[in-house]
């Protein structure tokens, strides 16, 4: 598991907030990096817990921001994820290592996060531009921060594998 300032080259690494599993409530910049071996084209982020300050009414993340260097499918994320929410990052041809940055303000909010990072080999990658990819026959799909304001700066596809 990684926390602020940590670096890993291990598959299935967890990014943890400061004081995990407890919350924190202060201004902070927390950066973690994942170094990828050759042959990795995507990183899958499985959001186990993600609670940052909510966006404003226009969807702007003004208090807290989660960013990934070089990511084009979202500018930043804040707020909360639905249960078991995932996202694929297209990292082929991107700078290595990949930097994950959590910037929080002094606004009073009980923050915490835990995100599993899986390395997807190029031979097993999903179609590029699919932020989310589903293989199940049925289920519910929720946007990031479902139940509150939709985030500004999101531009990704939700894709489905065709049944045989």
TrEMBL record:
Keyword annotations for this protein?
Disulfide bond
The region annotated as signal peptide is none
Q: List the disulfide bonds.
A: 61-78
Q: Name one Pfam family in it.
A: CUB
**Boundaries of every CUB domain copy:** 4-120
Name of the protein in question:
CUB domain-containing protein
Q: Which organism is it from?
A: Meganyctiphanes norvegica
Q: What is the lineage of its organism?
A: Eukaryota, Metazoa, Ecdysozoa, Arthropoda, Crustacea
């Amino acid at each position: 598991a990684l926390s602020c300032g940590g670096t890993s080259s291990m598959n299935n690494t967890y990014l943890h907030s400061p004081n995990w599993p407890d919350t924190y409530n202060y201004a902070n910049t927390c950066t973690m990096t994942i170094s990828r071996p050759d042959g990795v084209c995507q990183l899958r982020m499985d959001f186990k817990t993600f609670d940052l300050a909510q966006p404003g009414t226009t969807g702007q993340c003004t208090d807290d921001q989660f960013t990934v260097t070089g990511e084009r499918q979202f500018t930043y994320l804040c707020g909360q994820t639905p249960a078991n929410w995932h996202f694929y990052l297209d990292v082929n041809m991107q700078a290595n290592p990949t930097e994950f940055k959590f910037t929080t303000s002094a606004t009073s909010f009980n923050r915490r996060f835990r995100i599993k990072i899986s390395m997807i080999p190029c031979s097993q990658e999903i179609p590029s531009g699919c932020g989310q990819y589903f293989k199940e026959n049925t289920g519910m799909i929720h946007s990031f921060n479902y139940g509150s304001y939709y985030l500004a700066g999101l531009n990704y596809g939700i894709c489905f594998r065709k049944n045989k």
